[in-house]
Amino acid sequence: MKFGVVEGNGIGPEITAATKHVLEATGLPIQWVDIPVAESAMEKYGHPLPQESVKALKEVKVSIKGPLIVNKMLGRVTCVHSDGSEHTYPSINNAIRRELKLFVTPRPIRGFPGISGKYADLDIVVMREITEDVYIGWEHQIGDYAAQAIKLITREASERVARYSFEYARKNGRKRVNCLHKANALSITDGLFLKCCRKVAEEYPDIEFDDFFIDAACYTIIKAPEKFDVIVTVNQYGDIFSDLGAGLVGSLGLAPGANVGEDVAVFEATHGAAPDIAGKGVANPVALILSGALMLRHVGCTAEAAKIEASTRAVLGEGQIMTPDLGGSASTMQLADAIAKLVAL
Fold first, then answer.
1. What's the whole-model pTM score?
2. Do 127 and 215 belong together in one domain?
3. What integer pLDDT is reported at residue 336 of this predicted model?
4. Is 168 part of any domain?
5. pLDDT tens digits for 130-161?
6. What are phi and psi of 259, to 5 degrees?
7. For 46, phi and psi rounded to 5 degrees?
8. 83 CB-contact burial (10 Å; exposed 0-12 / middle 13-18 / buried 19+)
9. For residue range 253-294, what is the model confidence (pLDDT) as tens digits?
């Protein structure tokens, strides 16, 4: 059972090691395939995302990825392909997704009793479209007095992510799909996204469908979180809204995620690389551990995935071994080891 590993940077190596420890506790015959990206790729190939690494990610098909640092106003990456063509991406994370033709980022956000307060029952999945919107990075400077970014929405991408969301809802016993948009202000681009979601919704009469303006959705999830279930939205709104959901349940360190395409999938935490705490051994590994559980589900190891999820919730429910972001003093590996010991029982 081969899984690719991109350890990332910042806290990436620490939480990746913790995640591997927990997944290995399942007893599955896992073989880890290290794939260089960022600094490790620069050292070996002179490029942060060389085509050798892209090829390796495609060949292994399923990978776990630690977070990568993306500096403010920096980070653009140009990938040169074997046919001589090239493409520039706004960040290395964006480059990985688009070089691998990944199109949706499912981000489950679930409350934890004893940690999440009144949001302990929150249980949503944000489906973030990741191939377009303003995050494609089509922007340019206009003299020294302005800058412009292009927001791209296509029917193909919108219907694809909507259909993925409804299929997910049907397969997982979910009752509703919520579309988040701003079609009152962006009537053409977000308007097209909403039209596509409404069209796809007609194919799934067994699943309820509604829609919210993104600003109203941010208010409503705080006041009435029970109104949300499976959420489908464009790239930027999905990025922001999933962070909001993670904050409600207690920490970005509790929010797992994935990037899924037709043939390839990369599983990663919702949060970033947190360079301010890198190397201190205090980062919360739960989001990546739960991302690892999602990875196991993806390849059909549902029993092992469920064991990891239940063990994680049990350890956090006891409230004895918690990292600093959750109000405790445990280290990254202390928390991971407590989860791994339950998984191995």
1. 0.95
2. yes
3. 98
4. yes
5. 999 999 989 999 999 999 999 999 999 999 99
6. -130, 120
7. 75, 20
8. exposed
9. 999 999 999 999 999 999 999 999 999 999 999 999 999 999
What value does the mean pLDDT of the chain take? 96
Q: Report how far Cα 158 is from the mean position of its chain's Cα atoms.
A: 18
Query: Is-contact 159 131, C-beta < 8 A?
Result: no
pLDDT digits (tens, 9 = 90+) for 41-100: 999 999 999 999 999 999 999 999 999 987 776 778 999 898 989 999 999 999 999 999
DSSP summary character for residue 49? S
- Is the dihedral angle over the CA atoms 157, 152, 263, 259 positive or is it negative? negative
- Number of structural domains the chain divides into: 2
Q: What is the CATH number of the domain that holds 163?
A: 3.40.718.10
Structure tokens given for 208: 């309820």
Q: Distance between CA atoms of 58 and 37, rounded to whole angstroms?
A: 14
**Alpha carbon 15 to chain centroid distance?**
15
Torsion sign, CA atoms 231, 237, 238, 242: negative
Alpha-carbon torsion angle 92, 94, 98, 103, nearest 10: 150
Same domain, 84 and 124: no
Residues 146 and 75 in one domain: no
Q: Do residues 19 and 83 share a domain?
A: yes
Domain residue limits at 194: 116-249
Determine, yes or no, domain membership for 39.
yes
Residues 136 and 226 in one domain: yes
Concatenate the DSSP letters of all residues of 245-282 into one string: HHHHHT-GGG---EEEESS-EEEE-SS---GGGTTSS-
Kindly state whether residue 110 falls inside one of the protein's structural domains. Answer: no
HEC profile of 290-305: HHHHHHHHHCCCHHHH
- In sequence order, which residues have a C-beta less than 8 Å from that of residue 62 and are 6 or more positions away? 2, 3, 4, 264, 265, 266, 267, 295, 298, 299
Residues 133 and 42 in one domain: no
Query: Are 230 and 298 part of one and the same domain?
Result: no
In a shared domain, residues 120 and 95 = no
